[in-house]
Design brief:
Keywords: Signal. By secondary structure, the protein is of the alpha+beta class. The protein is built from eleven helices and twelve strands.
């Protein structure tokens, strides 16, 4: 049983890995057409089926994102003219012929040939129509990394107590006396009387006011870079297939007259999510010296692994942030960007799950950036 379970897990991992990079996508579409008569003729049914297939393709592009959706207009006519090239098979899920309203409706499930769809979009792009000498070179610098250490801080607590006291008192004193003497027959007699009165009052009050504050400081993370030669190949291959002239930053560094240092960029990414202004300035100046008008920058952040609840395999999520800079102008401009967006991969081990997640993230990020550049007419 243990052997069977391990075999099942391995097969599942292979299946999930293959499906992540598959060139076939199953989508659904629905369409209605009006007709005249007591029942829908064959022509009306064929027309509805064709519209439903086109709706399915449009649904795929709509779910793929804004940049991909903009590419749908470029391939619409080609799909209508030759649907078999882009639609591998069609399954009718349901149909309804409403004679009262003279309307026929059909719902379908189709399998799309994504490779041919993407090739059709690329063939219509500005970079594909340009000659190789007319295409602008692009520098590529995307790093993959994983959290190495996290530094957290205790809360800073400040307490304040203010006390106020007041005291009031009053005293009053009065005294009266009376004396006299009397002489009679050679004798002297005296008499005296006196009275005294004293009053005293006091009032005291005390008030206390308490306050303070608590200051929290965000944790600081440091990263370790993961060797990403395979990921570089995925990115560069995707851009190259689209027609762009892509070179890795390490290959360009010797031609920047020492203005660009790859190690400096990597050090910045080890300690934060953004490049320091000085690093970015040297990068831009160095690429201009090497005559590279476009630079692709980004990070693939690998999260900690956990167990996938559906398969029991190891699961790793990767967060993507990437952008393409146009540095031909005086002030660099971001002309395409993706993220932050997260992709997950599974595998029999942590390393396998991480590799699958990174491949999935790299493929999708490169495709999204390429679509945005195509829409802009960059070549």
């Amino acid at each position: 049983m243990q052997v069977i379970r391990q075999l099942f897990i391995a097969l599942m991992a292979i299946s999930l890995s293959v499906s992540a990079l598959a060139q076939v996508q199953v989508v659904r579409g629905k369409a209605s057409v009006a007709y005249k008569g007591k029942a829908a003729p064959a022509e009306a049914k064929a027309q509805a089926l064709s519209k439903a297939q086109l709706k399915a393709v449009e649904m795929y592009y709509a779910e793929a994102g804004e940049s991909e959706a903009a590419n749908f207009d470029a391939v619409r006519d080609k799909i209508v003219a030759d649907p078999d090239r882009f639609i591998l098979d069609t399954t009718v899920l349901g149909e309804e012929d409403n004679a009262a309203s003279q309307q026929y409706t059909v719902a379908v499930k189709v399998s799309l040939n994504l490779a041919n769809l993407r090739n059709a979009v690329k063939a219509n792009s500005a970079v594909a129509k340009a000659g190789r000498s007319e295409r602008s070179p692009m520098a590529f610098l995307v790093v993959s990394r994983q959290v190495d250490s996290v530094k957290s801080f205790d809360d800073r607590v400040y307490k304040k107590v203010e006390a106020k006291e007041s005291y009031e008192s009053s005293d009053s004193f009065s005294e009266s006396s009376k004396e006299g003497e009397k002489v009679k027959k050679g004798q002297v007699s005296t008499h005296a009387s006196g009275a005294s009165e004293q009053k005293s009052s006091a009032t005291a009050s005390r008030s206390v006011e308490r306050g303070g504050s608590t200051t929290k400081k965000a944790a600081e993370s440091s990263w370790r870079l993961i060797p990403s030669a395979n990921l570089n190949q995925i990115f560069t291959a995707s851009f190259s297939k689209a027609g762009y002239k892509v070179s890795e930053a390490a290959m360009i560094e010797p031609y920047t007259n020492g203005q660009f240092k790859l190690a400096t960029v990597e050090d910045d990414y080890r300690s934060g999510n953004d490049l320091k202004p000085a690093t970015l300035a040297s990068l831009v100046q160095g690429m201009r010296t090497a005559q590279f008008p476009y630079v692709t920058l980004g990070t693939l952040d690998v999260n900690m692994s956990d167990e996938d609840p559906n398969t029991g395999l190891r699961r790793v999520a990767v967060t993507v942030n990437a952008k393409v800079l146009d540095i031909s102008a005086a002030i660099p401009d971001t002309i395409a960007s993706v993220g932050p967006v997260q992709y997950a991969g599974v595998g029999a081990s942590d390393d396998e799950a991480r590799t699958n997640a990174l491949k999935l993230a790299a493929n999708n990020a490169a495709r999204e950036l390429g679509s945005q550049l195509t829409n802009l007419g960059v070549r």
